[in-house]
Design goal:
Blueprint: E1 3-7, H1 15-28, E2 34-38, H2 48-53, E3 57-59, H3 64-71, H4 77-81, H5 85-91, E4 94-98, H6 103-112, H7 115-121, E5 127-134, H8 137-151, E6 158-166, H9 177-182, E7 189-195, H10 203-208, H11 213-218, H12 221-228, H13 232-255
Parallel strand pairs: 1-4, 1-5, 2-3, 2-4, 5-6, 6-7
Helix pairs in contact: 12-13
């Protein structure tokens, strides 16, 4: 019944990829979590995750309604907007994809609403936060800030913070990420997870056409050839690479006791 919140300090760090891998890994062991997105909504009225999973995603959104709430003369309107997160946290068994542009708002909501006290008093399921970044100096510096803020326990009662090191842009050996984060005193348990680099040539067309990892893994090669507009040679090797990569991700999750 765990609630898993996926966050990043900026776009392009792999947050929605992480949410997908958590969803597929959960379903593989018979868990059917609620999927929610508090991320940017485009002209289709959907978030990136929503375009992959359609109506299965509860869209909390960062579109016009959020802007209207922030610009309203009612100073509490912006806080009330994020009350929609409350029932998700109370019920649990959810994966929440939080956009970088609303992390501050949600942390602020939790602090003002004293969400920690309320959730604890109602015996709400545990909350695990997954903070992901690529191997970039600024990303590492910002990760320190996110770990400190989520780990303070002022916004919500976080059981574990998983620092997910996305190796798509390189490795982390010279950045000192672990050393920097282990110096921070937090109430939550801190764990580190690798997200291995995906070398499948199908990944880019999947992203372009909003084809989810779950859909791609379940499709026949003929169907994915037509859907992605790639040739059979690319699909043959690309699917092998995709399956091998995801198997590696599941091993990392198992090692970190995520599933």
């Amino acid at each position: 019944m765990i609630t898993r919140i996926c966050c990043a300090h900026a776009g392009g760090q792999g947050k929605t990829t992480l949410a997908q891998t958590l969803l597929v890994a959960s379903r593989a062991i018979g868990i059917q979590p609620t999927i929610a997105s508090a991320d940017f909504i485009d002209e289709t009225g959907q978030s990136k995750l929503g375009r992959m999973y359609g109506d299965a995603v509860l869209e909390l959104g960062t579109g016009p309604s959020v802007s209207a709430a922030k610009d309203s003369n009612d100073l509490s309107a912006g806080v009330r907007y994020w009350d929609a997160i409350g029932p998700i946290l109370l019920k649990g068994n959810a994966i929440l994809d939080v956009g970088a542009n609303v992390v501050d708002q949600i942390l602020n909501w939790g602090k003002i609403r004293r969400a920690g006290d309320l959730l604890n008093s109602r015996n709400a399921p545990p909350i695990d936060v997954f903070l992901i970044c690529k191997a970039e100096r600024r990303a590492v510096d910002d990760m320190v800030d996110l770990v400190r803020r989520f780990g303070a326990g002022e916004s919500m009662p976080v059981r574990r913070i998983y620092v997910v090191m996305n190796e798509q842009g390189g490795t982390f050996e010279v950045l000192g990420l672990r050393e920097s984060l282990m110096k921070i005193k937090v109430q939550a348990e801190l764990r580190f997870v690798r997200l291995p680099r995906c070398t499948s040539e199908l990944w880019f067309p999947m992203e372009q056409r909003y084809v989810s990892l779950e859909s791609a893994l379940a499709m026949s090669e003929d169907k994915i050839t037509d859907l992605l507009g790639v040739d059979m040679w690319s699909v043959n090797s690309g699917m092998d690479d995709l399956r091998t990569w995801f198997a590696g991700v599941r091993e990392e999750f198992k090692r970190a006791d995520i599933m």
